[in-house]
Amino acid sequence: KCVRVRVPGTSANCGPGFDCLGLACTVYNDLELRLTREPGLSITMTGEGATNIPCDNRNIVWRSAQYLLEKAGKDKEYRGAVIHMENRVPLSRGLGSSATAIVAGLTAANALIGNPFNRREILQFATNIEGHPDNVAPAIFGGFTVNAVTNGRVDCFSFLPRFRMKFVVAVPNFPLSTRMARKVLPTEVPMKDAIFNIGRASMLVAALTRGNERYLRLGLDDALHQPYRAELIPGMYDVFKAARRAGAAGATLSGAGPCLIAYVLERRHAEEAVGKAMLEAFRKHDVDARILTLD
Ligand code: HSE
């Protein structure tokens, strides 16, 4: 038996919602998985990262499938796999490529053994593997997601915003590991920055669920992670400004970066201008980037 699953790329944080907010977008990775009783792996792939992703025991799709098999007590029964990946989510750029691999591996293995786990359990497994839930949650549930972690247990709800948006993503030509982008963060933050972010994150969710465009503009600011990560992405704040000037409601770092994502209301038809402005602003800082326009 072989299953095929498709998992969306994601943008975590959405500005103020560090480790708590995320959204799914229309760029997808496909996975075909067959489990074998004999040990041994055959891993092939096309597309993004095809030359960088390990094709042995370190492969994250296989590790995630194994994790699920262990949880189901089936890891002695299935000891190998045939895996084929078609990747379109840029690798190590802040669009959740590792989350897609984890969710794909878990979901496909789950389906192959008769779906013993529900989506909440898959979310918990995926969070345990990834370390934070804000990419895996929208990859599993779709839409915008809000999650809260209590003593390691993750809860999540997903919703669709009241207005249609385009996400204009500037993808720089350099990768940035999440580990590195988390290393530059402080372990403690000033109370005033925490209050700033609580207001912004709440405003963002309220604006999206009520369909309030003015508050969407306000809801994308952040004081908890972007200021510290700016040093890793030359021109970040200039690109944000350029995107706003060209008609975006706002722009944020996508996940841990280096992708920058602009939120553009569909009825403004500004996505082309926004993409151009973001590229130009990046170019002034000697950063080569490409644009993905997503829903
Ligand atoms: N919330 C995580 C971070 C997302 O910003 O480090 C990483 O993709």
TrEMBL record:
<keyword id="KW-0791">Threonine biosynthesis</keyword>
<dbReference type="GO" id="GO:0005524">
    <property type="term" value="F:ATP binding"/>
</dbReference>
<comment type="pathway">
    <text>Amino-acid biosynthesis; L-threonine biosynthesis; L-threonine from L-aspartate: step 4/5.</text>
</comment>
<keyword id="KW-0028">Amino-acid biosynthesis</keyword>
<feature type="domain" description="GHMP kinase N-terminal">
    <location>
        <begin position="59"/>
        <end position="143"/>
    </location>
</feature>
<dbReference type="InterPro" id="IPR006203">
    <property type="entry name" value="GHMP_knse_ATP-bd_CS"/>
</dbReference>
<keyword id="KW-0963">Cytoplasm</keyword>
<feature type="domain" description="GHMP kinase C-terminal">
    <location>
        <begin position="207"/>
        <end position="276"/>
    </location>
</feature>
<dbReference type="Pfam" id="PF08544">
    <property type="entry name" value="GHMP_kinases_C"/>
</dbReference>
<comment type="similarity">
    <text>Belongs to the GHMP kinase family. Homoserine kinase subfamily.</text>
</comment>
<dbReference type="InterPro" id="IPR036554">
    <property type="entry name" value="GHMP_kinase_C_sf"/>
</dbReference>
<protein>
    <recommendedName>
        <fullName>Homoserine kinase</fullName>
        <ecNumber>2.7.1.39</ecNumber>
    </recommendedName>
</protein>
<keyword id="KW-0418">Kinase</keyword>
<keyword id="KW-0808">Transferase</keyword>
<dbReference type="InterPro" id="IPR006204">
    <property type="entry name" value="GHMP_kinase_N_dom"/>
</dbReference>
<keyword id="KW-0067">ATP-binding</keyword>
<dbReference type="GO" id="GO:0005737">
    <property type="term" value="C:cytoplasm"/>
</dbReference>
<dbReference type="InterPro" id="IPR000870">
    <property type="entry name" value="Homoserine_kinase"/>
</dbReference>
<dbReference type="InterPro" id="IPR014721">
    <property type="entry name" value="Ribsml_uS5_D2-typ_fold_subgr"/>
</dbReference>
<dbReference type="InterPro" id="IPR020568">
    <property type="entry name" value="Ribosomal_Su5_D2-typ_SF"/>
</dbReference>
<dbReference type="GO" id="GO:0004413">
    <property type="term" value="F:homoserine kinase activity"/>
</dbReference>
<dbReference type="Pfam" id="PF00288">
    <property type="entry name" value="GHMP_kinases_N"/>
</dbReference>
<dbReference type="InterPro" id="IPR013750">
    <property type="entry name" value="GHMP_kinase_C_dom"/>
</dbReference>
<feature type="binding site">
    <location>
        <begin position="90"/>
        <end position="100"/>
    </location>
    <ligand>
        <name>ATP</name>
    </ligand>
</feature>
<comment type="function">
    <text>Catalyzes the ATP-dependent phosphorylation of L-homoserine to L-homoserine phosphate.</text>
</comment>
<dbReference type="GO" id="GO:0009088">
    <property type="term" value="P:threonine biosynthetic process"/>
</dbReference>
<keyword id="KW-0547">Nucleotide-binding</keyword>
